[in-house]
Amino acid sequence: MMNTHLQTPRGAATAPDSRACVITTHINADFDALASMMAAQKLYPGAVAVLHDSSKKRNHFFVDSMAYLFNMRPPGEIASLDVGLLVLVDVCQASRIGKMSYLLEKKDIEIHIYDHHPKGPGDIRADYRVQRDVGATVTILTGIIREKGLPLSPEEATALSLGIYEDTGSFTFSSTTAEDFKAAAFLASKGASLSVISDLMSGDINPRQVSVLNDLIHSSKTAVINGVEIVIASIFSDHYIQDFAWMVQKMVKMENINAIFAIALMDRKVYVVGRSRIPEVDVGTALKEMGGGGHPFAAAASIKDRTPAEVEIRLLDILKREVEAIWLAGNMMSSPAITAGAGLSCEEAGEIMTRYNINAVLVTGDPEFPRDGRNLSGIITRQVIGKALFHKLGDARVSEYMSTEIQTVRPDSGLKEIQDKIIDHNQRILPVVEDGEILGVVTRTDLLKTLIKKPSSGGESVADPHREPTRAPSRNVSSLMRERLSKRVIGVLEKIGEIARREGFGAYVAGGFVRDLFLFRKNEDMDIVIEGDGIAFARKYAALSGARVHSHKKFGTAVIIFPDGFKIDVASARLEFYKYPAAMPTVRMSSIKLDLFRRDFTINTLAIQLNPGAFGALIDFFSGRKDIKKKTVRVLHNLSFVEDPTRVFRAIRFEQRFGFKIGKLTSGLIENAVAMDFFKRLSGRRVFNELRQILEEENPLPAVSRMADYGLLSVIDEKVALTDSLSTMFKSVHKVLSWYELLFLEESYMKWTVYFIALTKDCDEKTCREICRRYEAPMDLEKLFCEDRFEADRRLREMARGVPGSNSGVRRLFFPFRTEIILYMMAAARTDEIKRAISLYFTRLRYVDISVAGKDIKKAGLPPGPEYREILDRVLDARLDGRVQTRKDEIALIEKEVVRRNKKAGKAKR
């Protein structure tokens, strides 16, 4: 949508060559259109305002009372003027400006447009255009008036405010923006009368209007289109009904209607007014196909040479194409359905419900074939299973106690049918079946969440960005993605969605990537979830993108690796369950909903759909975005830490990284997991990996301190404790690492190992080796932690008695150690002298080299042997200490050393 700066338009003061300037708007002008005309006259002094006759009828009181503020002429007088500039407000389509459209055919006319309707095909060509997505056109013009400092009388301010109040529904419509509020506040400061606005906005309903409203209500019928209820009302009148759109809006409020199309035959024309409070019904798009226009929430059209019945039939055809299906069983269901074979025992069925955390399970197949069968036989609930076990009937087949009188729905069944069958038949889960195949189930929880999120009266709609969505269509974040993600990432995501559509998969980006999108944190580690075969999808994507794939069939995961090293993680939507506490998960194919349910915390359960047509749709089943706003880390269920105790470490890491707070219940569950010592069942490698990730944080001390609060440091070893000296050491390490980063040395090193050495500083060598072996640390790390670190401590004790005075002595002291050990030494050093020596080593001495080699020694006359290393070390020491400067100096020193050694060798022979 075009958006120009609020600058002075060409010809704003006068029309080109002093020709006439005409301001007009659409037929059946509302308050916003009239107010915009008045505002435009402030920007175009001397311009003539032209109002269509139908607009005068509709707003006769406003026009009569404010006429003295306009320089107004009837349309018939414009033909005699030499019009050089046409200014259109609140309209951008020729079909909506009535008789004034003839001016568009003039070749020597300049056209300026100010509008807040969405830009679309067939819009009038303009030489100057200000078209923005705000609640009212007069908001745009008020902003220009404010910037220019143009004067406004209280009467003018009142008239302009009326346009804003009407088109924003007194600031309750979802189209209302911050700019509308600012404009209204400015007009209030200029003396706008709220009492006048209130009187005009809420005028009494006269008997004629009561009659029209009565006809509308009694003629209304509800059409369920793609699961969405839409009211259609039709009336007939032998004369034009003023304020028809206003009465439709009145009916919306009176009857609590989410979407309505009111059809009226008036003056041999059919008028259609559409109003919507839900994003699934875009009335602007629907009526644009019928020659009208407007916004997604408010639109109108006038149609000639058609009967109301014909208009209604065409309207319904359009709506079947355009209405976004949301409240259908196929969209609401959880899929795939968890089933139990009819021949399974009650005890086995109970284990299935416990494993998948469900309260009812579908029973399929023939009892004679207990582990097979797709046909639906019945439903059995946890309550029935519990009673069967109580009565010692655990070995009995579920087919003996299942409910067989069950209701089912098709995937295209609407919300009302789902609601009736679940509530009227007291059925816990509702199977979704098509052609005998079970596609999924709609649970009572699914229904309850949908009913809670259905919009109601009060001005709030599911499109409101401040509401917490539970299903993808409730909010689209594609604009947020384009604002915060790189072009490459957006391109990759769009291509993923397109390929998924072609292959028949559902594609989503999920987890930390989406979480960080809302936290304004850069994160290009994409976690793609595919409803279908994730590995097959990854291979297809890689083949079309010149990338390669590394897959893990057991877990249904794959990594797409691009030639430049960029990676995308792909996984089949899956459900995990744990056979015992702290076990590795067992994986089953699943849906996006169940895939998100297996995740650790609600803040990581957000997903964004990538398929074209739904690109950017936010999935939030577990109020993850709400917890992000509240800055809360919360588990999805109470056994989360029993199933996977490593989640405790992640909870602490996320809390400290994002400045969040672990929820009260979650904190209690952590304390329980520590008390029950579930960590002893974990493999050492898993604990070590989680500890490593904590130590890789920018500043891990707060997380380590939090671990100490929960008694988790003892998981590492009983001797590890957060003392004052350890806190001081961590702060020193952080300071040293920050200093080292500022040197911009192109060397990779493992920062976390420096913190780990600090964490185990008070442990002896035996304890360190026990820790390394318990947590399956690689041999190189065991050497670093258990040998190099203790040698470094010995060197520190030596240096406490005095640091070498020469550069060569300093280099010999530190050169044998890895970077991580030297940084630890700097953090542990107790004197500035030692720290200065380490700083000197890193900044000046470490990479000093010599230009000579063994061949130069051989050339000087010394046969190859171990003495070569000694001579080269002497040359390097001389270079470090400044005794040699050039290659020539180095050669001279070699020759001197060779002569000395040869003499020494000769004496030895004698």
From TrEMBL:
GO terms for molecular function: CCA tRNA nucleotidyltransferase activity; metal ion binding; nucleotide binding; tRNA binding. SMART domains: CBS (SM00116). Keywords: CBS domain, Magnesium, Metal-binding, Nucleotide-binding, Nucleotidyltransferase, RNA-binding, Transferase, tRNA processing, tRNA-binding. Its cofactor is Mg(2+). The keyword Nucleotide-binding applies. Transmembrane segments: none annotated. It holds the Pfam family PolyA_pol. It is an enzyme of class 2 (transferase). Its EC number is 2.7.7.72. CDD domains: CBS_pair_DHH_polyA_Pol_assoc, NT_ClassII-CCAase. Residues 333-396, 402-457 form the CBS domain. Residues 454-478 are annotated as: Disordered. GO terms for biological process: tRNA processing. Belongs to the tRNA nucleotidyltransferase/poly(A) polymerase family. This is Putative tRNA nucleotidyltransferase (CCA-adding enzyme). It comes from uncultured Desulfobacteraceae bacterium.
